[in-house]
């Protein structure tokens, strides 16, 4: 069996994690920042060293293509190399760099596969700076127009289009021009299931639905000491009330329902002033679309009820909304077979996190391979996956890609 060099994979992960490194581990490379550019440049350099034909598309997605014996739709693998601000070193990076090690193994074994092989990283998967998340793969899959994507702006009003140009990754190839024969994404689980159950490989059947809403609340700033409670129009109170409500709602709904108020800013944000403005986000997710809709409706009703009682104005903006996605059953079976062929324990599961794969499933058969996250930690600088698990996932990727590239 062709083996890939997992030591090289580990050192590549370390080197990439050195860009935007955070004190104490992890890395921060928010999409289209200078650190993202440096990370992109490093990976593009590795792609070129491996002899890949590197293409940058009009939304900054980067694809390294390795020719096959025949000019057929390629077998593609990839993920993302942008991170959240408290990012770990494996989220996204692992899938891209494992793809490069697949190419290195093919090169060293002087194997030319029937189909071309492609390794991709997509722009702004995280959605931490620009929304929606999975922006690059969504455009690639035809789910969002380029102009709308270019117009997405961060908190400082910098747009995706301007930032792509500024960092030199406003490419020319048409996103989605290269339609894969199949797409695989190798990724850390980012949750606690595999680690708790001591299972080596997650055979991912689906990705849960996601709803991101940003609320802007306008009240009246007032003196914290002299303003009686009956006269308050406290924007911060509404934000806090929604946070508590969303937590309780998720607990009462149970199942896969989760709810997070992740971002919150108050103005004037001073100890002795009743806030007149609050901007906060609500992230709701569920594997069941009907339940996700129910959760959205409950939160919206609570916002309206409290806004009326507190006499504040509220503006809601949908930042991202994707329904659950089910992966190609045949390809999912093949992930499971390849894991078992290596005598690795497996369990089928949904993905709690969003991934580029959920967009690629729109245009080609797609599946994901998960490896365990220690203590289920992710989007946390302590994110960790054992070397043996990283190697096992990468070996499945190599074996399955070889399979797919010969059919
Ligand atoms: O939020 C997510 O699930 C992903 O990390 N973008
Ligand atoms: Mn990811
Ligand atoms: Mn992530």
Explain what the structure shows:
36% of the residues lie in helices and 22% in strands. α3 (93-108) packs across α12 (387-405). The two termini are 18 Å apart. It has 2 domains: 6-207 and 326-405, Zn peptidases (Aminopeptidase); 209-322, 2-Layer Sandwich (Alpha-Beta Plaits). The protein has 12 helices and 16 strands. By secondary structure, it is α+β, with helices and mostly antiparallel strands. The protein is globular. The strands form 3 sheets. Strands 1, 2, 3, 4, 5, 6, 14, 15 and 16 form a 9-stranded mixed β-sheet that branches. Strands 7, 9, 10, 12 and 13 form a 5-stranded antiparallel β-sheet that branches. Strands 8-11 form a two-stranded antiparallel ribbon. The site of one manganese (II) ion has 6 residues, from loops.
List keywords for this structure.
single chain; 407 residues; alpha+beta; Aminopeptidase; Alpha-Beta Plaits; nine-stranded mixed beta sheet; five-stranded antiparallel beta sheet; globular; binds (2S)-amino(hydroxy)ethanoic acid; binds manganese (II) ion
What is the topological layout?
Layout (H helix, E strand, L loop, with lengths): L5 H12 L16 H16 L3 E4 L5 E5 L8 E5 L13 H16 L8 E5 L13 H6 L5 H6 L8 H8 L14 E7 L4 H5 L3 E7 L1 E10 L3 E2 L11 H19 L4 E3 L3 E4 L5 E2 L2 E10 L2 H22 L2 E10 L2 E2 L2 H13 L4 E6 L5 H4 L5 E6 L15 H19 L2
Parallel strand pairs: 3-4, 3-5, 5-16, 6-15
Antiparallel strand pairs: 1-2, 2-4, 6-14, 6-16, 7-12, 7-13, 8-11, 9-12, 10-12
Helix pairs in contact: 1-3, 3-12, 8-9, 10-12
The protein binds (2S)-amino(hydroxy)ethanoic acid (HGY) and manganese (II) ion (2 copies).
């Amino acid at each position: 069996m062709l083996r890939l060099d997992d030591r090289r994979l580990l050192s590549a992960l370390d080197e990439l994690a050195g860009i935007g490194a955070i004190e104490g581990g992890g890395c921060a490379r928010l999409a289209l920042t200078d650190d993202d550019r440096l990370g992109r440049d490093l990976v593009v350099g590795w792609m070129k060293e491996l002899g890949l034909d590197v293409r940058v598309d009009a939304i900054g997605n980067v694809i390294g293509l390795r020719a096959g014996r025949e000019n057929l739709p390629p077998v593609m693998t990839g993920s993302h190399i942008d991170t959240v601000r408290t990012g770990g070193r494996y989220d996204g990076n692992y899938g891209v760099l494992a793809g490069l090690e697949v190419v290195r193994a093919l090169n060293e074994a002087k194997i030319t596969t029937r189909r071309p092989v492609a390794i991709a990283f997509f722009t702004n998967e995280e959605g931490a700076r620009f929304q929606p998340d999975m922006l690059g793969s969504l455009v690639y899959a035809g789910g969002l127009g380029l102009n709308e994507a270019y117009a997405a702006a961060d908190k400082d009003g910098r747009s995706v289009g301007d930032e792509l140009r500024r960092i030199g990754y406003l490419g020319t190839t048409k996103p989605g021009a290269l339609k894969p024969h199949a797409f695989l994404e190798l990724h850390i689980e980012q949750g606690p299931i595999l680690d708790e159950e001591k299972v080596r490989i997650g055979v991912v059947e689906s990705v849960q639905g996601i709803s991101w809403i940003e609320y802007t609340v306008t009240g009246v700033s007032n003196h914290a000491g002299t303003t009686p409670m009956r006269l308050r129009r406290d924007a911060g109170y509404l934000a806090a009330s929604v946070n508590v409500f969303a937590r309780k709602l998720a607990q009462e709904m149970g199942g896969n329902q989760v709810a997070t108020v992740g971002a919150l800013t108050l103005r004037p944000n001073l100890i002795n002033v009743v806030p007149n403005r609050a901007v906060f986000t609500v992230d709701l997710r569920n594997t069941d679309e009907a339940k996700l809709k129910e959760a959205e409706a409950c939160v919206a009703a609570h916002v309206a009820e409290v806004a009326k009682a507190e006499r504040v104005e509220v503006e809601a903006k949908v930042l991202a909304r994707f329904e659950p996605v089910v992966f190609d059953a045949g390809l999912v079976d093949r992930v499971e077979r390849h894991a078992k062929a290596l005598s690795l324990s497996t369990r089928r599961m949904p993905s709690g996190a969003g991934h580029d794969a959920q967009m690629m499933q729109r245009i080609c058969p797609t599946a994901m391979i998960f490896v365990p996250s220690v203590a289920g930690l992710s989007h946390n600088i302590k994110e960790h996956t054992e070397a043996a698990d990283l190697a096992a996932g990468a070996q499945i990727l190599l074996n399955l890609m070889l399979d797919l590239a010969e059919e």
